[in-house]
Design brief:
The chain folds into four domains: about 160 residues, Rossmann fold (3-Layer(aba) Sandwich), CATH 3.40.50.11040; about 170 residues, P-loop containing nucleotide triphosphate hydrolases (Rossmann fold), CATH 3.40.50.300; about 210 residues, Aminopeptidase, CATH 3.40.630.30; about 90 residues, no CATH class. It is about 40% helix and about 20% strand. The protein has 27 helices and 23 strands. Strand 10 and strand 11 form a beta hairpin.
Amino acid sequence: MPSPDIGVFAASLVDSARANRHRIPVVVSGEPTWCYVVAGQMLAAAALSDVLWLGKHAPVGITAQPLGRARRELGSEYDALVFDTHSGFSADLLAAATGTVRGGGLCLLLTAPLATWSTQPPPHQDHLLVYPYKESHVGARFFARLATTLATDADVVRVEQDRPLPTWTRPSLPLSEHAARGVSAPCLTNDQAQAVAAIIKVARGHRHRPLVLISDRGRGKSAALGIAAAQLLEAGSMYVVVTGPNRDAVEPVFAQITQLTPQAAVHGNEMRHGSARVAFQAPDVVAQSEHHADLLLVDEAAALPVALLRTLLQQQARIVFATTVHGYEGSGRGFELRFQQVLSALQPQWRRLQLETPIRWANGDPTERLAFDALLLNAAPVGAEAIGQARLDECCAERLDRDILAADEQQLRELFGLMVLAHYRTRPDDLQYLLDGSNVTVHVVRHGHHIVAAALVAQEGGFDARLSAAIYAGTRRPRGHLLPQSLCFHAGLANAAQASIARIVRIAVHPNVQRRGFGSKLLAHIIEQAHHDGCDAVGASFGAEAGLLRFWTTQAFAPVRIGLTREHTSGTHAVMLLHALTGCGRALQEQALARLARNLPVMLTDSLRDLDAELAAALLSQLPAVPSAELDDQMRADICSFAFGQRGLEVNLAAVQVLADLALRDGNPAQTLNARQQALLVMRVLQRRDWITVARALQYTGRAQALDDLRATVRALAQYYGY
């Protein structure tokens, strides 16, 4: 049974937490029933009733919520959190949940005895399972490390079954003030007030002066967006669009608007007051819309790819980007590194503003520091001074032993920090994935003891003929195995699921050694290792960009499939590539390439009609050439009558389309055309976009100029081919 002194102990914890506006992390470890009773007694004794209980068996008066509810609670505030690991665990959800607790509260983590986590981790680790592996195949390296952190951190209060309550000495910290002096409501700090003023200035000041807001969680960044939007909503006829990774991610913005403008009418994802509107739109919808907002607010921008942010930046005259520095939605540090060059090139008068003063809790909060350390939210790659002079011939590529990696904190921080810096989607769950994923291997390039490039590789496919047939028919979809399943079902390649493919899930090169061959060295190592392991091919799938596609094709990877729809968060089409290693792999690659070559021209007039023209041209350049015999004498005559005469495009479009397809696949004539001419061929001839859209996108003065340039382009190609 719990100690009768547990109530007094809990009350003293809360008194200390409130005195310092800190959140105290408490680990309650033991049998599940014992943990539930102790947690309930602690909450009752400390008079904490506003509680987010994630898990099962909450006491009377508190509603137990499923762990996944944590994502829906962004922007909410509670006096206490109970995170029940007996019911399951997710690093993402733990990171999200801790941010909901206000200063003066408790964060209770209910666990089995921590010493057992290295062999018996929490249940329901389904997100790590890949067919045919069972939960028993999932590693426990992540939990062993987490248990060590929780057992040794001096700020963690540990309440353990069958052991005395720990000695608790109230820290002698100065009382923190919640709000800065001289700050007018609804702002709570000078930082937040400055952020709101800066947002309003973007809305009403000079055009093309973007603002970037950076902060850690709990600093009022999203609330600042909401305060500014509410002021603009009340003030007049402005149309404000809010976007982010998803609707839940921007809920704190709308919660603030609702609180400050209760008179506004709500219509779905839109709020109206008079002629003013504030609406949520998914980022891909914003990117494709021809109706631009008076002000665009992009929250959690680090969770969106740079290509999509660039599109928004080019489209919108007034835009604010806000992101979290150390967040489970993505890394603000990586965002700044990747996006700063784009900002400076396109909008050199952009401004950066960082919110540093916490609002929900005081500086030095132990729960915030614990989350940073335990989930590596503050991981960083090796500093530039240690690797700036790295030479390729002095570096080695290798596959890491994950047991050794988990025990080497410096190496783990450098590796995960590099992933965070390079990939907008890297989250705390990815730390568990790289340490314990059942089909994952980790590969690096080292300079001395430091990691300068890294990749995660997943083993996929290798199904028997029966299961492969079921995948092809759409009746089975085994967990994981993205590439072989997609090629089998979506691309219609019946035997694709039988191929064994090493898929590169993530790859990152330290920014200080990029474009020096380190990425190529890492890829060469992965290919060699996959060949040694008996794989049929090495593959990759990523949000398609022309520059990225060119890098992969220079490494002898061939595009084999392009997604038909844009991903909502990235705004891009996914492209899949293969590098064949065996006869089976080569047959699959050739079959997939031939199918893409046959289907792409048709898809460009239909589902891929809005595909980026530069990307479409880059894809076509990698496909098998169209046989010149398809151009008969009449078609050549039609091409010449358009190129050298005055006949219109529409009556000669069939012939011009074949020529454009031929030229863009044939590298030599395509090199004679500039980028705008290639885009013109793609957009007007292959995608059949109207003249107005083409002229606007390619910055022609109008239809006449675009038509003249198209005639000149076709004329150059006709002369090249000797028509």
